[in-house]
Fold:
Amino acid sequence: MYNSVDELAIDSGQEGVVKIDELLAENLGLDETLQTIVKVVADSVPNIKSRNVMRVLTEHAIRGRLEDEGLAVADRLSTYDVTDPDTAYAVYSLLMRLSDVCPNALRRLDSIEWLANLIQALVSHPVQGRMEQIASQLLYKVCDSRELSLAELGVFTDDLLDRLCSLIEDTREADEQNHDLIRLLLAVHDQFAQKNAARSVLSNPVLQTLERRIDRSKTLSENFILLFNRAEDRTLRLKMIGFLDNLLQNKGTQSLFYTNDLVVILDVVLRETKNVDADDEANTNACDFPAPQLHQRYIFLLPLLVNHPDASWTPERRREVQKLLEGIRDGPFVRPGTRVCAGKALQGRTRRDSE
Structure:
């Protein structure tokens, strides 16, 4: 009997673990060490039955010298020929592990060709498997690690985004894969939104894709709400708020959510607007950016929801929103900038109106 999933994973990948441990004990150069590790992991792929086994293998591999020289390891892994699926799965899994111990490593993956290969791995098969899942997770991390250039954003074509949205709909019954794909869509949207933060330099193709698929995005809308309700990571929450902000202000995508969906979204926004101030408003003497951004972004969602053309709120519901905003505007322990945001929201002004 195994006492834990980790014990089972270690036993299942024992041969690979032993080979990796023996290899790391040798005094080889970095290139030779890495080349051999990739081969050991790739050779193990056909016999790997779960992601826990791959996790154990990569944790054993990315330690010691490979962890210490994380940036150099990322540089070398990014040049690997990933034509062979097992090698590609091994390389992407090693990079995922490397990103855990050396977050800046993913900033080195700045080749358009490399991004294109990763995207190809994501969309090349009609059935989503472990290759597609590791590709979506790694691509999300890459998008989350830095702002992509305009040339790099060019790999996210209309066809690709349509395919990504189709995959979201097709993986309805596979929660983990589905949520990974939704997070990736949010990250790509955020990349284009960042480009337009200062001034509008290009249209956001994610919004355009959703506009074309407005009646074919049921799984996306339902599971987005599920993630929105449960999200704890601050960065992901900001991405989700920005996504909602743009969706609700764009006439072509306003109707992505059903009326009942809007009720749930408003419940979440009200809850988080009440709760987030403890973290965001703790230091009232600090500057307004970036600490209170989360609180202020939630606040600016309220007029978009209250004034949504498809929603019909009761007078009691409207008074609840008004009372909350008035409390923030007049609150003694609220940053001046946040009080201004609440005052604008009471006037029905959105974040876009206030920029």
In short: The chain has a mean pLDDT of 88. The first helix runs from residue 5 to 12. DSSP finds 21 helices and no strands in the chain.
